[in-house]
Write a structure and sequence with these properties.
The complex is a heterodimer of chains A (about 300) and B (about 525). Chain A has about 300 residues and is mainly alpha-helical. Chain A is built from eleven helices and no strands. Chain A folds into two domains: about 80 residues; about 180 residues, no CATH class. The termini of chain A are far apart. Helices cover about 70% and strands about 5% of the residues of chain B. In chain B, helix 6 packs across helix 9 and helix 14 runs antiparallel to helix 15. Chain B is globular. Classes of the chains: A mainly alpha (about 300), B mainly alpha (about 525). At the A-B interface, helix 4, helix 5, helix 7 and helix 10 of A face helix 1, strand 3, helix 4, helix 5 and helix 6 of B. Chain B: Belongs to the CPA3 antiporters (TC 2.A.63) subunit D family.
Amino acid sequence: MISPVDLALGAAVLLVAGLSLVPRSRLVVTMGFLALGVLVTMVWLRLDSLDVALAEAGIGTGLLSGLMVWLAVRSPEPPGAGGMEPSPRLPWLRPAVGVVCGAVLTVVTAAVWLRVEDRLPAWGGPVEEQLPDTGVEHGITGVLLAFRAYDTLLESAILMLTAAAVMALSSTNLHQAAAPMPPVPLALPWATRLLVPALVLLGLWLLFAGSRDSGGAFQSGAVLAAALILMRTSHIDLRGLSTYLLRPALVVGVVVFILAGLVGPMLGLPWLSWDPDWAFAAVLTVEVLLTTGIAAGLYMLFLTLENPEGVR
Amino acid sequence: MTELVEFSLGALVLLPLLAAAVVMLIGHTARRVLGVVTAVVTAGFTVPVVATVADGDAPELVLGGFTAPLGITLRGDGLAAVFLAGTALIAVVLTVFAALVPAATGEHLTPSGWRPGHPGFWPLWLGCWAGLNGVYVSGDLFNLYVGLELVGLTAVALVALGGRKSWDPALRYLFIAVLGSLLFLTGVGLLAAVTGTLDIAQARAVLEEVEDPTAGLLALSLMTVGLGMKIALVPMHRWLVPAHSAAPAVVSPILSGLVIKAGLVILLRVWLWAVPLVAEAIWLAWLLGALGAIAVLVGSVLALRQDRLKPLVAYSTIAQIGYWFLAFPLLVTEHDDAGAAPGAYSAIVALAVGHMVAKGGLFAAAGYLKLRFGTDEIARLRGAGAQYPALILAMGACAVGLIGLPVSLGFAGKWQLATAAVGAQQWWVVVVIAAGTLLAAGYLLRGIAPLLLQAPQESDHQLPDTGDETAPAAAGSKTRAEGAGELLILLLGVATIGTGFLGSWIYDLLGVGLW
């Protein structure tokens, strides 16, 4: 049943999506994006997808908006603002192309939507059957860390290597971590001191709840990274952490994940096999360390916003 | 034996990945050692897989013991084996080269300015290799996407190792890479919605029973466009030339030789394995064929007009990409013409692997020259051959492969493609091949011949004043490690010719585990 709430939510998503695309000012666009994230999270909640909603709120909205706010504050005007201007000779060309593309996309999507018959995922039954062997009780955690652990491993590796790219773009020893931050209103450090303990608690709860309920390494890592970003923005000295702990924290998840996967072949099983006897211990260890890696990786993405050649 | 093969299938991906993680924690010299050790061991794991496939078996690894559709299955079939073997060869050579000549890995920023050599190369490259192997052996659509992301992201970061100048091309590459991946992911999502599974073999089985081909066709189109962007098919090629020429010396051959092949392998997986070729897809195949023909001609002509070596080699890549797509119309005419499809498929693979080896060698040579002389302007490299005979020999051998002269995989591939085209009476394909071959000879001669000419004398002063007119000035004298590096490039040149004898072996390998 479509309720008025859903309709209003849908209309609001469209409106805010426009708000986050059309304006020229980066600040307005960023605010629009933030609001869009909140609305999309609510849409996921209405669809009963708590896990997706948490991921959307944590990573899609929370962290991405953090990066965008930083960018908007540092340089409010898009560089070479001409990027959005109509071309002088054929002013109608760009809108026309846009309209044509939009129309084609709509027609194709609608045609497929109406003609194609969806099938229920074939893995629904097997998930129920084999979940007891994985040591976790929540289906999504089971898919992430047992059934399709290989995908999760590669995805964590992608985040780790993105952070490696950040380090490659920085000067020796992640100097960005020590670069001066812009001044902030006095209330922020104060609020940070109040918020960070709560965020850490929330992150840990998301992590440990993940084995039975919604939540897990990615959401938890995002919350912990947010705490780090807040502290950094509030001029709290994190240099010790950045110099000594960030790198080990970044790689430990992937390393332990692979080593845990290697236990299977040692015992004559396939790669990434976990015996039901100790599967829960393996999953929990991997998940805790993955969270560390994800938090470190996401925090490094924030560090990369600083130009390695110094502030222009 | 079976256990070893299964273990190897997983280790081919997870070992370089583990090394990529560990290498981030250790010092710069240790990184080079660990990198070389990892490369050799990973190449060693290729052997059991390729040997099994050569025996006619296609090994499988059911990860975690969870069978599809629930879990992920890795498959080592003919296509995987050929690309695993080719990648292992190039990767080992380039890894040792990077360890011997650290300056080839880019330049890094220190508080006192830019310094040659970039330690960040090691985690990124090992991660990239893990992604490449992951793409080759993957039997799962979503896992293909994850592998593609792993390759794409590390490739972008590798470009950015080339210092300040390379950041703009890297950013442009990033946009294209992400857009291409997203299009591919949309296709994957569509296929999963229609078939209810992500396993490639199972998805195909379901699609064959679905009467309405719309969803399959749309997914195929989306994935083809996305991958076309990543492979840099004309007209989606503009990102490639700046990215590949601004990349550090050892990264350009990785990008041109290996990274774009990951896109090609996925494209073949989608066209031949995942989506059963429907009659409605013929227009798409013809479109790809036409774009391929344009790529061969336009890419070659643009390569002819370059004054610098690395962009010339990069445009040559665009032309060579065209050949792979030229064969697509012959793949789909299967229904009325039984003979053409296997030949066209084998031609694509032979051309791609031949290009992998030859372009790896040529780009490494070009990058090395640029490193030594501080420029890759062809006019200023005149006479460089006198100091680097091994390098010039390697470039010549690689050119043989790129032009498609016998004996090389380039020749074998063009021969198979032309045979398939004649069999299907598509004469225009033969014309494009002939024209492309002539143009390739032209631009490669234009790039390499000046290196062999005598250096300009005191009297003819067409060159900008470099101070030393007798020969282009190399920066400092060669170390022994660099001399060994040259021999490695020569090894790739020899391999270009040597692999030419493997044409029929590759044809047999490809027959294992067909769709």
